[in-house]
Sequence to fold (244 residues):
Amino acid sequence: MRFLLTRRWLLFLAAVAVLAYGCLWLGEWQFARLQDREERNEHAKVNLAMDPVPVSQVMGADDGVSKAEEWSRVTMTGTYRAEDSIVVRYQTRDGIAGVDIVTPLVAADGTGVLIDRGWLRTENVGNALKSAPAPPSGEVTVVGWARSNADGDSTRVDDQSARAISSRAIGDTLDYPLLEGFVDAETETPPADQSLVQAELPDLGEGPHFFYGLQWWFFGLLALFGFGYLAYDERRNLTGDRSE
Fold:
């Protein structure tokens, strides 16, 4: 087995070891994602079934919606600022193009909460606000689900539109404070004359993480087995121990 100490085989072994370790790490990462998703699903199941609480119990001026509070049912009363509405672009439903309409609801104390009022089917993103149903006028009570802010460049607001919702990015365009996060509307009282399509609830399935984790571990074992087989075959060649 001295051939295993040659430079070629040592480099080969190092490459296989790195590959196997990488597969082990990726498998563990997938199982960690599975555990994280299971925890979030448990929180979501509880929160979706809870009675609505005042929005201030879940969302604050400085603290965002935590993982444990995501999808909590909240309620708030205020007046919609329709002129400050934002279009969230590229929101497809079953392959159909559309946008979400987000409008701040401002309470009596002047603090606003972003309300994702729902989805609108439209091909014309630029004129979506012109064709969007108006929110209810006067004092409105909204019941919905608390959501955390999105991050990154997708939250940048340009011409009253963005690709994802962030109270921080949208708040920079307004002259009144917003609570951190936003709310997916479930009901509006009084209702709008023409309603939007309600926000989609979370997928509570476990996703593909378990099988992806097994696949990565299988690939790691396959790499080790392949190295062992090639070493065995090389040994047979060197010793002439090969069956006819």
Summary: Strands lie at 53-54, 73-80, 86-88, 98-106, 112-121, 139-147, 161-162, 178-189.
